[in-house]
Amino acid sequence: MSRVAAGDYVLSGSTRPLAALYSRNAKAVIARGLLATRSSNWLIMVSGFFEPVLYLVSMGVGLGALVGTVEGPGGQEISYAAYIAPALLAVSAMNGAVYDSTWNVFFKMNFAKLYQGMLYTSLGPLDVAIGEIFLALLRGALYATGFTVVMALMGLLTTPVALLVIPASVLIAFGFASFGMGITSFMKTFQQMEWINFVMLPMFLFSATFYPLGVYPQGIQWFIQALPLWHGVELLRQITVATFTPATTIHLGYFLAMIAVGMLLTTLRLRKLFLR
Questions:
Q1: Which pTM does this prediction carry?
Q2: What is the number of structural domains in the chain?
């Protein structure tokens, strides 16, 4: 009897740290977020979709008439609109995920005190992280799906393989959302939050979104290749023309590593902030 009791104690003691982090009830966080979005935030969600679409129409159609064709993945010639469309799709997924996992999380964390209330219940920090990141992923997936439909209507999808850009965009959104929420946990003021826009705008402009990486000096190329958006842009470009290389695995691995680090950072930060 004592041996069994001791064994039970060891087992419960070994699982207690995990139970404190995760109660398997992330769906409660998701349900609350969906209700809030339906009642007040749906217009904000819809508005964020149109920015990359306007860029595609103005740059791809307008400027594209002057540029003509450019060299795409594998050296094949493609239209300028087909060249920038996958890049803008990656931007669309990034925007949807980042804004939901940064500004939205910042308000809930510092003003609404929502997470503090959640963690006073049976929910653990991993439940909150999974729930909030899922909501950001949902926004990124909606943006990616809508943008893919626009690409199809413009005749920029020429192979069925190109439909894989949707799950790939969700992967990109996952990477940005998981990391974005963790970074936001360090922010205390609106002025600090402006650093997010300060980082995102140059990344959008210089991640080979509108022109090839080769136009930059070698040193700048190395810096750009370390940015997550560049990996997302290159991954989606390869998928849209069904041209895959060993670099495709590197792009996928980059986001898988980003997700793992981001989820760990977010969980540890929520635990440190609210479970002292």
A1: 0.82
A2: 1
